[in-house]
Amino acid sequence: MDALTITCIYINLGTLMIAFLENIFIIVVNFLDFCEKRRLPISDQLILGFSVSSLLHGLQKWYILCKCLLNLPRNEYDMKATHVFMYLNLCTLMFSALLSLHFCLKIVNINHRFYIGAQRKCPKLFPWIIIAFPLGFFFLNLFSALEISPECLQNTTFTIIVAIKMSPRCSWSLLFFSTFCILCASFCSVSASTIIFSLFKHMKTIHGNSEGSRSPNMDAHIRAVKTVTSLLAANIFIFISTTILRYILSFPLGILISISHIFSSYFLIKGTKKLDKALAEIVNRCITRRKK
Q: Which Pfam families match (predicted)?
């Protein structure tokens, strides 16, 4: 293992540690709020689901990186862990896509029958969507794990093109994964484009208004654009690292994925009053203790 790869692994571990702290903070705050109020709004449900899946995905990635760093041999557990890693990838992508769609439906108003119907009906589908999708992915991934042959997972390139050449059994699960990555990236890109277009339209509307650029609606637009863009970047990097590029390039792309998740979690914290308030209280307590 060369010095560049080792450096990338250490940077990966460092970015994962930052992402861990953000995800744990979001999970703890939402859990305490749920214990107090016995309910969570849709936005908080999606943010909590994204943080849990991102945390588990990061822990799995931490294990893989540590094993690469120690140069340990692959065993039977690693074959099963590959499917777990793909499942956690799917869950993370799903929650990021649902978050992007939710922000778009919540912030942007479009005078179209289909869009208005989606705004009214989508909130009624929660939390069943959050339960149904992970369960569906679990059973699909379980079926794939039972059918796929071990030599498919021993391939170091782990790309769709190589898998198709090896065996149809190697290709269908990866094709399913890549298809879902494309769908998630499409949802995020459409949502981001819609929010950005609505933001510029809103800026033109309030131009010259006394509220100026400090309009609360505009601030919500800007926060949503930042969050959706970071989620979209993570989706694209995951898709590229898993389905197109070779194994050796997965380390630098892993850094970009972790950085994208760091920014998305940060924007989610700053964009949610409850999380932002809790973070401000923690920072103030730390400053007060240092002064003492």
A: TAS2R
